[in-house]
Amino acid sequence: MTHGQVLARFGHALSDATRARLLLALRESPGYPAELADLLGVTRQNMSNHLACLRGCGLVVAVPEGRRTRYELAGPQIRQALDSLLGLVLAVDPAACPDAAIKGCC
């Protein structure tokens, strides 16, 4: 996979506010779908879809635990990348980026 493909996958994952919040929750600790759905205030079906997307992007892994499945970040590099992104200070220009006015965007 090229660097561009990796960044595109990460960007796709972060382009949705729920997936971004989910990654931040998993950055803190692994979780189970039902608990993550409750934490983020989404339906279990919606959570399942977001987890499937993040798995497909290679950002999270599913760890079977008997009858349950725990989700966690795919590796310490994902946590480090999120930490680095959270440390950024962005100079947002709403005139140049109309999407900056979107609720939850900036």
Automatic annotation (TrEMBL):
Gene3D superfamilies: Winged helix-like DNA-binding domain superfamily/Winged helix DNA-binding domain. InterPro entries: ArsR-like_HTH, HTH_ArsR_DNA-bd_dom, HTH_Metal-responsive_Reg, WH-like_DNA-bd_sf, WH_DNA-bd_sf. One of its GO terms (biological process) is response to cadmium ion. One of its GO terms (molecular function) is cadmium ion sensor activity. It holds the Pfam family HTH_5. Residues 1-93 form the HTH arsR-type domain. This is ArsR family transcriptional regulator.
